[in-house]
Write a structure and sequence with these properties.
alpha+beta, 16% helix, elongated
Length: 361
């Protein structure tokens, strides 16, 4: 059988640091997204090694000194991702020209500087991913990542399931083409209905525009999942960080829990708790005890390989006497099969103190 190959990171311990675009470096430091970094450069707010930078088409290495808004660019931190249950009425932006409250005004104060993965409209609610790494945010936003976005939409109007089925082939609204959309009717209650919508592109106000084009007005929109991450029972306005092993498994960030650096529990074989039998001679090996060793060994060889419990004292032979069938034969165990070649097994053990061959209870 061919052993599956593993994706391993190349050994860069002796390799020289690879140069990268300055916008990417700024984004990895968690200052802003790559696109926003390019805007900062165009506005003359970024310096490289003391000189004002005028183009984002510049590569840098860890040894370069970068300043943004007069402050030294911090070193890139370990990538982190959070789930956030965005409430209705907050704008997904850092600064709103109209002075409306943003999600960053509502986030916990102890949260580090974060960037949103995509956006949700002012009146939209539900799952919004946050990260401290702008490069991760950009990667997760791209349709090429292949992650689906799932919504529950409450609409006003009568839903035609056939119209919803046509959306799976793609749709065009006002000259804008949208990719395949999976839409299913959950239930129709009077003039309103709930629809489940799954898409992969996430263009601006896509769900609202597409549904309005088929006569349905969206009056509530909740995002319940983004790729493998679910909104679940996360309370409105709450923030929860994803565990490192989840990031490793779902996004390839960090080290998964079953790789080097993490202990993997090994299953130990179960050990028998049955005590070893004691013999008169002090030898605990079955078949070697007392004057009836040969008789006992003979009967133990007949299908029962577990020695019975021996107690000190004198052995009381069977009433049939020595030399007769069943002489010296121990009582049967749980199997109910006699140990000798002839005669019937004893219905109960001998009343004497000797319980040799009595079997296990």
């Amino acid at each position: 059988m061919t052993k599956p190959t593993e994706n391993k990171s190349p050994d860069t311990s002796d390799a020289k640091p690879q140069p990268e675009r300055i916008a990417k470096r700024i984004a990895r430091a968690g200052v802003c997204s790559r696109r926003e970094a390019e805007t900062l450069i165009a506005e003359g707010r970024v310096r490289l090694n003391g000189k004002l930078l005028d183009t984002p088409a510049t590569t840098v290495t860890p040894s370069d000194r970068i300043e943004v808004n007069g402050k030294l660019l911090p070193e890139p931190e370990q990538p982190r991702v959070w789930r956030y249950h965005k409430p209705d009425g907050l704008v997904t932006t850092n600064h709103d020209p109209q002075g409306r409250e943003t999600i960053f005004d509502a986030l916990p104060k102890d949260l580090p500087r974060v960037i949103t993965v995509g956006r949700l409209d002012l009146t939209s609610e539900g799952l919004l991913l946050l990260t401290n790494d702008g490069e991760i945010a950009r990667k997760l936003e791209l349709p090429a990542t292949g992650w689906s976005r799932k919504y529950r939409a409450r609409v006003h109007g009568t839903v035609d399931p056939k119209q919803l089925a046509k959306l799976a082939k793609g749709h065009e609204v006002s000259g804008i083409k949208y990719g395949p959309i999976q839409a299913e009717l959950e239930r129709q209650v009077g003039a309103n209905a709930w629809i489940t919508v799954i898409l992969r592109e996430g263009k601006n106000r896509e769900v609202r525009k597409v549904l309005e084009s088929i006569g349905l007005t969206v009056n509530r929109l909740i995002r319940i999942s983004y790729g493998p991450f679910q909104l679940g029972n996360l309370p409105v306005g709450a923030v929860e960080e994803l565990a490192p092993n989840i990031l490793a498994d779902q996004m390839g960030i960090g080290t998964p829990s079953n790789k080097k650096g993490h202990a993997v529990a090994k299953v130990k074989p179960k050990r028998s708790t049955r005590p070893k039998p004691k013999t008169e001679s002090g030898n605990d090996k079955p078949g070697k005890a007392g004057k009836f060793a040969k008789s006992d060994a003979k009967h133990r060889g007949k299908g029962n390989d577990r020695p019975g419990k021996h107690s000190p004292g004198k052995h009381v032979p069977d009433k049939t006497g020595p030399g007769k069938a069943g002489a010296g034969r121990p009582a049967t165990g749980k199997s109910g099969k006699p140990g000798g070649r002839a005669g019937k097994p004893s219905a109960r053990p001998h009343k004497s103190g000797n319980r040799q061959g009595a079997g296990r209870k």
